[in-house]
Amino acid sequence: MTNLLQLELVPIELASLDNLSVEAIVLAPFDDEKPLKGAAGFCDWRLNGRISDLLISGWYAAKSREVLMLDTCQRIGSERVVMFGQGKRITMDIVVFKRNVKRMLDALKKANLSSFAIELPQIRPGLDALDETVATLFDVLAEDYPEARVVLLCADQEYLDKVVKLARKDERVSLKD
Hints:
Elements: E1 5-11, H1 14-18, E2 22-27, H2 38-46, H3 50-57, E3 67-71, E4 78-84, H4 94-110, E5 115-118, H5 130-144, E6 149-154, H6 157-169, E7 173-176
Parallel strand pairs: 1-6, 1-7, 2-4, 2-5, 5-6
Antiparallel strand pairs: 3-4
Helix pairs in contact: 4-5, 5-6
């Protein structure tokens, strides 16, 4: 019998980030999207603008395949933030998404991280691909990283409700209530 994926869903808000108990928060910023939004924006707020400062200075640009790990100095419920640049938002389609998720999870596994929170990078506006993006996450996790404990950061209640429905249908997933 294989292990079930341990999945928890939480809304993206300051209190949720503060109460996380994971080794890393995984962010997927786009290089052409500023100011930072979603979990990246909240993490930046908690880190006193440290992520924005790195972007403004050009030290980190969120280019495709660019990775940055930051210590959170215990300002968030995680030891570190790992940022995986997504490049330009316009280039994000389901094929690029799948490649990027696989790359992100491969890097987390190589870093021996057994628990992490992640906000999935969004497909281009106008492409409603939530079912496919969540299925991709489950597929890659089940194949390559079934031992991980994953907290999926959800942008709003509608997103959270859709993911709950998808997770309950997937027999590889154990959804924490």
